[in-house]
Amino acid sequence: MENNSFEYTYSPQRQQEVEAIRNAYLPKEEKLQQAAEARLENPEASLTELAAMMEPPITKPAMNHRLKKLVSMAQEANT
Q: Is the dihedral of CA 30, 45, 62, 40 positive or negative?
């Protein structure tokens, strides 16, 4: 099994990617919509802080997974 050590980090480009997919793909997946909105409304928040904002709260790895999925969707949309 491949060890993927990628962790989502905030940047203006990532912010634009999240905004791009929000309109293209959401609200099809409510969990991802909630993650995208939390990131957009709190661009400087840590993964732990964002995870605590979810309803119900989730773990930091789960938040990281959701944001990675959003980035992947954005990258696919831009190709």
A: positive
